[in-house]
């Protein structure tokens, strides 16, 4: 089984938190082919009556995405939501300055709400705090969530949508700390407009939950002072602060790339500390939760994007074609998010279709699952329940940016109602099998149900339209259980799902 070994101990009494299913959310922005040619293609042979691609809908439902952030992203900071409602033929065509494209406004708020319903998902709605402010924000909440009997709610009814959407979660702008953002603001400027927007939005609908903009990434020069200042103004009015970060392997250093989840972990811990500092400073009893509403691997398409001419409709922007190596990193990032389920209540894999996405389509043609589809699908399907605190010991390595990187990255989730225990694990070692020895403790009566793994002889293998199953998960043999000890061989460079049942 290999010479390397890591040990883990499980006890049902040692828990971290119940997982909020919204941690398995995603993101659709008016960017590239995410909307047009992605979720919406009325001329496609598999389009439904609303023009939505049913092949895409089927794969989204396979991912069990409970909430989708919309409509941006950088796009939202220059977006007039009124452009996307009413008769489609009367909607204006606009230049989107965020991505240098032309926006035809064929899809807007009501159409996306319909798509989300068909995808069995909810909408995390974002408002524009770049070029607009509290007035437009309160109007949009009224349009979306009020039953009728007011100007904006009656306008929605006039537009053919009788029942309100009742969107629960709202983002107060996007990446307002970034100089690239339309309407970029200082922390003080943003904190004030976010506070005032939050107040009027909740006056319209007190039931909504709000997400304030945190830093665009951990490397921002204003991090974490940005969070501290923004929360000084918004703490009493919002439920979450956002985190964004993307990871890449531009220098081709796989060992370093596979350790990037340690950076995500440090980022999360810093934001939690900042939130708790503001809580203490305000003498508040309220705990601020986190929404990691943009995360993924993103670097493959950067150079190609610079070659595209501006001002076209739905150009192929940010179309990363993911490798098996990327899937391993996505697996470690998912594990990190779940381990922090006590504070991270929402997250959004950015994005869902075509744009740095698990699902890819060919305009007018087929669709396929990228390598990163599978770790996300596994976590979303089997990672519902309570996160267990699982002490682990085992070998580590050092690399360019990190020291003491464990070869084993893992998290365990217990679904008491279903009597299911799932261990998610990545073996970072590129050459050797890692033997996982798990003391099941008071789960000793549980039986091994299956061991699913993703491996590949070539870390750069990709799934394509022509070869959609180049890298897929398969059932493994070799795991054994003696008494309360479960032993599982984890192949070199592998993603693993180990499922046990008490039934």
Q: Please, could you describe this protein's structure?
A:
With 503 residues, this protein is α/β, with parallel strands linked by helices. It folds into 2 domains: 4-12 and 388-501, Golgi alpha-mannosidase II (Immunoglobulin-like, Sandwich); 20-382, TIM Barrel (Alpha-Beta Barrel), CATH 3.20.20. Helix content is 24%, strand content 25%. The protein contains 11 helices and 26 strands. The strands form 6 sheets. The chain has an 8-stranded parallel β-barrel, surrounded by 6 helices. The chain has a 7-stranded antiparallel beta sheet with strand order 2-15-19-20-26-22-23, with helices on one face. It has a 5-stranded mixed beta sheet with strand order 16-1-21-25-24, with no helix packed on it. Helix 6 (225-234) links the parallel strand 9 (209-212) and strand 10 (240-247). Helix 6 crosses helix 8 and helix 8 (261-281) packs parallel to helix 10. The chain is globular.
